[in-house]
Amino acid sequence: MATEDHDYTNSSNMNKLDYSVHKYSSVSPNFTAQHIQENKQTDQSSRWSSDSNIPPQYITLKLANLSIVKTITFGKYEKNHVCNLKKFKIFVGLNDEHMMELLDTGLRNDNVEETFMLKHKIGGRDFPCRYVKIMPLQSWGPCFNFSIWFVEMNGISDPEVVEPALEWFKQYQKREAIRLCLKHFRQMNYNDAFEVLQRETNVELEDPMLSQLHRLLVEDGDYEAAEAFMEKALVDGLLDTYISQQEYRAVWRTLSSERPQPGMRGGHQMCMDPNTETIYLLGGWDGNQDLSDLWTYQVSRREWTLISRDTELQGGPSARSCHKMCLDPERRQIFTLGRYLDTQFRSPSNLRSDFYMYDIDTNRWTQITEDTASMGGP
Question: Cα–Cα–Cα angle for 225, 228, 232, nearest 5°?
């Protein structure tokens, strides 16, 4: 991730890392690789340019000392340039034959230098390297060769820090090699070899819980026990991180009820009392006429109940659709405002916004006003 707002080098033991050009895939005449060690923003020839854009193209840098590389900075030409790197990758390693990928990103096509934070920890510990490979993948200009104008790296080269990190990293590599062997032995069902290697090295392939799940599924074929294991892991919160990273996906299912329920309609309004888990449905249009019925749906019991077939007869709103409704769960009151009138029925006398309140506990409607506009409302 590039930034000009954060100072990655704000550390007492970080310093600029010296390096030399170790090797490269190709080079264009007059654009030698050593140019990237000097930041000459106004000099168009001060850059390494590949002789081709056919992969793989790369330039490998060798650090003067074994170091923990934390940032890499790319300088640019003073103007936009078609050869700037739109996409590239960075690899590091203790040698130039076995390297790991640290970064997959790109540069903006402008004249502002960009600094990238490099991954420099494995297992929560810093790891050192000696070689850094920059692999261009795409330039800003289609079919153009790749150019790098300037490279600077910052990190830690202090032997008192790097040498212990190197020793730990070597041990880490040994453990990982043993774990890969253990994984292979288990996959191939070489149980004796697996047990001997694990006993002699005292290296665990994985978390004991994963080994238990493998035994239930692969060795025992006990799917019910495996399901129970996963359910317990879910309850214990072991899957919370994984679940939090998943995208929500709606799952619809039809809710049926043996009791009478509302007929088909559109333009109706619903609101919910979260305390009682009760949904209230008022009115709507059934395709022939507006409706004035009031229903409740009890979520926990999945039951519909008809409260009123015609709320107007109880002093409530007349038949309507496309009105608005909301519920106050503390006072247990429902408020409904307005309705839709077809153009052929609109007139100054009936084109008014009436406002009603329904008290849930007393099952009583109250008309607050015939026209909210007359009270200074909508």
Answer: 140
C-alpha distances out from residue 200 to 70, 193, 195, 210, Å: 36, 11, 9, 21
Same domain, 106 and 187: no
Q: DSSP E strands: which ranges in 259-349?
A: 269-273, 278-285, 290-298, 303-308, 324-328, 333-337
- Contacts with 124 (C-beta within 8 Å, 6 or more apart), sequence order: none
Residue 304 CB partners (closer than 8 Å, separation 6+)? 257, 259, 260, 261, 262, 295, 296, 297
Question: Residue 355 maps to which CATH number?
Answer: 2.120.10.80
DSSP percent split of the chain into helix, strand, coil, nearest 5:
25, 35, 45
Q: In this predicted model, what pLDDT tens digit does every residue of 233-260 receive, in sequence order?
A: 999 999 999 999 999 899 999 888 788 9
The band of 373, judged by pLDDT with boundaries at 50, 70 and 90, is confident
> What are phi and psi for residue 172, nearest 5 degrees?
-60, -45
Quote the tokens at residue 288: 């022939």
Angle value at C-alpha 340, between 335 and 345, nearest 5 degrees? 135
Q: 96-131, pLDDT tens digit by residue?
A: 999 999 999 999 999 999 999 999 999 899 999 999
> Strand 125-126 and strand 15-17: pairing?
unpaired
How many whole angstroms from its chain centre is CA 323? Answer: 38
- Whether 258 maps to a domain, the answer reads no
The answer to whether residues 147 and 172 belong to one domain is no
Q: How far apart are CA 290 and CA 65, in angstroms?
A: 83
Residue the block writes with tokens 């406002």: 355
In this structure, the chain runs to a length of 378
355 HSE (CA, 13 A, CB side): 10
| Range(s) of the domain holding residue 278 | 269-375
CA 125 to CA 306: how far, in whole Å?
66
Would you tell me how many other CB atoms lie within 10 Å of the CB of residue 358? 25
Residue in 170, 171, 155 with CA at minimum distance from that of residue 116: 155
Residue 82, CB half-sphere, CA atoms under 13 Å: how many? Answer: 6
User: Do 148 and 170 reside in the same domain of the chain?
Assistant: no
Render 219-245 in DSSP notation, one character per residue: IS--HHHHHHHHHHHHHTTTTHHHHHT
- The Cα 107–Cα 75 span in angstroms is 10
